[in-house]
Write a structure and sequence with these properties.
This protein has 155 residues and is an alpha/beta fold. It is 27% helix and 20% strand. It has a single domain, classed as HybD-like (Rossmann fold, 3-Layer(aba) Sandwich), CATH 3.40.50. It has a five-stranded mixed beta sheet, with helices on one face. Strand 1, helix 1 and strand 2 form a beta-alpha-beta unit.
Length: 155
């Protein structure tokens, strides 16, 4: 493990060109304006998949923020595991082909898997072309950030 690498990674993923689909990236952008505790690194993962293997490798904890498809109301924050996003499940939750479960599986095969993976899925309100979050999700960004920091501090 790289001794200079932060033990906890907060990874925001999503497509910012599809409004609420970019919630993970928007939360990371918000967190970049905050004072981070030592040992936490922020990464905007965009829509990358396997390109993230090196970023994920050998971390103690990874917290991923992403938009998820759910019948819950828009703005609902769901705490998930990688298995919840697995493509073999009947209704995978990921709104895009980010392939986070496959990327995490690859880290296992390469013997560099993170020890803990927490996923915060946020139910979007509006997934259409555009750069702005819906009002519902824009108002939730600080709450999501607090939830992520709370999870990071428990690790």
């Amino acid at each position: 493990m790289d001794s200079h690498r932060a033990k906890t990674l907060i990874l925001g993923v999503g497509n910012i060109l599809l409004r609420d689909e970019g919630i993970g990236v928007r939360v990371v952008e918000y967190l970049q304006q905050q004072t981070l505790p030592e040992g936490i690194e922020l990464v905007d993962g965009g829509t990358a998949g396997a390109d993230l293997i090196d970023v994920l490798a050998d971390r103690k904890t990874i917290i991923i923020i992403d938009a998820v498809d759910s019948d819950k109301p828009a703005g609902t924050i769901l705490k998930l595991t990688p298995d919840d996003l697995a493509p073999q499940s009947p209704n995978p939750l990921s709104l895009h082909d980010l392939d986070i479960p496959q990327t995490l599986a690859m880290t296992k095969m390469l013997n560099c898997a993170p020890k803990n993976v927490i996923i915060f899925g946020v139910v979007p309100e509006c997934v259409v072309p555009g750069m702005e979050l819906s009002k519902t999700l824009a108002q939730l960004v600080p709450t999501i950030a607090d939830t992520v920091f709370e999870a990071a501090s428990m690790r």
